[in-house]
Amino acid sequence: MTGSWNDFNDAKQNSNIIPKGTLAKVRLTIRPGGFDDPAQGWAGGYATRGATGAVYLNGEFTVLEGPYARRKIFTLIGLHSPKGPDWANMGRSLVRGMLNSARGISDKDTSPEAQAARRINGFADLDGLEFVARIDIGSDAMGEDKNEIRAAVTPDHRDYAQVMGTAGHGYQPPAQPAPQPAAAPKPTAPAAPGRPAWAQ
């Protein structure tokens, strides 16, 4: 007697790899490595220093929506390599793309507002950043395929608005530290029927 639970030759390989080129909205969580270098502006313990002397941000990217929701992709964002500037330049390029994507700015925009939106006070500003990523495939330490994020998708891309969920919205400046609705006084009288509390 043979059946699917006796003969496993035709069982499909269970690949966890998200197809190369998939666009997905992701949230970055930086896994702290405890390495600081105030001269470089690296503070808050976010950076990690490896055994080779390379310094990076240990990024955990969580897919927020779509068929791969809740999947996690781990990618290092280069800050410094003893071998030369290439790794740091790739890291800076990725962060620029992430900021452009998260803040809805075209990469070609050189306005003062766009330049201000590409500045951060520290790595804490990147922790929790949500943006559209293009998912790639690289290799892990064992030579096995693994997903990586090497590029962010900006509003110049035709699918950006649909993936980001901002169809019909233009650039929104970064939120101010104190949200305005929280500061609004609470209504003392019951809200009028059919009218939201903020419209009182």
TrEMBL record:
<feature type="compositionally biased region" description="Pro residues">
    <location>
        <begin position="174"/>
        <end position="190"/>
    </location>
</feature>
<feature type="compositionally biased region" description="Low complexity">
    <location>
        <begin position="191"/>
        <end position="200"/>
    </location>
</feature>
<feature type="region of interest" description="Disordered">
    <location>
        <begin position="164"/>
        <end position="200"/>
    </location>
</feature>
<protein>
    <submittedName>
        <fullName>Uncharacterized protein</fullName>
    </submittedName>
</protein>
